Amino acid sequence: MIIAEQKPLDFVIETLDEHKNVLVVGCRSCVAVCLAGGEKEAGILKESLHLHSDLTGKGWNIEEITLERACEKEWVREMASAMEGKDAVVSLACGVGAQVIHEMYPSVLMVPGVNTVSMGAPDEQGIYMEKCAGCGDCVLHLTGGICPVARCSKSLMNGPCGGSQKGKCEIDPDTPCGWDLIYRSLKEQGRLDLMDVLIPPKNWRLSRSGGPRKTVRKEAVQTPEEKRIGGASQ
Amino acid sequence: MRIIGFVCRDSALPAVEHAASKEDPYPSFITLVEMPCTGRVDVVHILRAFREGADAVFVAGCLEGNCKYQYGNIEARKRVTLTKSLLQAAGLEPERLEMFNLASNQGWRFPEIVQEMVSRVERLGPNPIGKVKT
Fold first, then answer.
1. Smallest Cβ distance to A44: which of B44, B87, B129?
2. Do A162 and A80 fall into the same domain?
3. By C-alpha distance, which of B4, B5, B11, B3 is closest to B73?
4. B48 CB-contact burial (10 Å; exposed 0-12 / middle 13-18 / buried 19+)
5. Do A36 and A108 lie in a common domain?
6. Digits of tens for pLDDT over chain B (134 positions)?
7. Are A195 and A138 contained in the same domain?
8. Which residues in chain B are contacts of A57 at CB distance < 8 A?
């Protein structure tokens, strides 16, 4: 899932500036699981902004809504009536959701209420670890199910490096060495021979180095005929 | 003066009943909100109390380690800490909010808690929200 963390309230207050009619938008997907932008957090942010407005006499009109998934236009349409008369949105959805909302309501100020941090998973309640870097060329079959791109600090494809100390990375004693994890996983699987397989230089054009990535699943794309008959979603 | 207390029904509330009597009730400017556990106290509850004009808010739960629901009072303490930072950012003194822990047989603690919050309000003055709103 996508991991995000809330921006400070001060930032939201300053960024809203003179905008008075505000919709706080939460998302029930990833950001709800990582406790950054679900229904609960949207309610708290709304109440906090209300308190600030009441204390300062700013007269902000603040409402909140939490979408099922802010990254899909079908769900974002549900906030249409709540958007009436609004001049700013504070998005607690991830950067993806915030941009989809903006695409649908381009004339309204978009204030990001969270920083989108990584693709990861909860290690335990309240602690989230990055697991995937979205490199576009997965090698988990060669690395014992552990991603060297996301979990090795240097994204080494053939590790570990000399900075691996007793299973920890030299950047931080709390950070496990990704290649130590890979070694242990391969040992568990009886596949230590894979440590000798040289992974060739990676094609980073499939990652961010190739610019914004467009993924097309041909079977799912509606033909012009289908669009004409069914009225394709925008 | 208006002080709101979110109190655990298994510890703080019995303590209040110990401390107060018909002859000597707790002050009328205090409103107690009975909670099944302070773990049920939400950040929004506290913020709303201040928005409604409370000069101070306190949360009173069991002694740590004594929560009937294991760690509701620890959850409450974390939420109080979070809410203090939100109050600061919103423009209200975080000292207007506090978390207390007491046992049901520590009735003597309740007047101390009240006195602590009254002192804070006297030092900070009334919640400015009333002035702005009117």
1. B44
2. no
3. B11
4. middle
5. yes
6. 999 999 999 999 999 988 877 677 788 999 999 999 999 999 999 999 999 999 999 999 999 999 999 999 999 999 999 999 999 999 999 999 999 999 999 999 999 999 999 999 999 999 999 776 54
7. yes
8. 132
Q: Are residues A157 and A58 in the same domain?
A: no
Please name the member of A10, A47, A57 whose beta carbon is closest to the beta carbon of B47.
A47
Q: Which domain holds residue A87?
A: 2-118
Which range marks the domain in which residue B26 is found?
Answer: 3-133
Asked whether residue A27 is domain-assigned, the answer is yes
Which DSSP category does A212 fall into? S
The encoded tokens of residue A140 equal: 């988990």
CB contact under 8 A, A55 and B86: no
C-alpha count within 13 angstroms, C-beta hemisphere, residue A32? 16
Q: What is the reported pTM?
A: 0.93
Is residue A83 located within the same domain as residue A173? no
Minimum CA–CA partner of B43 in chain A: A44
The CATH number for B103's domain is: 3.40.50
| B40 near A CB under 8 A | no
Shared domain for A103 and A166, answered yes or no, is no
Interface check for B134 against chain A (CB to CB < 8 A): the answer is no
Would you give the DSSP letter of residue A222?
Answer: P
CATH number at residue A30: 3.40.50
Angle at B78 between CA B72 and CA B80, to 5 degrees: 100
| ipTM of predicted assembly, 2 dp | 0.93
A interface with B, Cβ–Cβ < 8 A, is 8-10, 13, 43-44, 47-52, 54-57
The position carrying tokens 């979070």 is B82
Residue B2 near residue B96, CB atoms below 8 Å: no
Contacts A48 to B, Cβ<8 Å: 47, 86, 89-90
- CB < 8 Å to A44, chain B: 43-44, 47, 86
Say how many domains are in chain A. Answer: 2
AA identity, residue B66: N
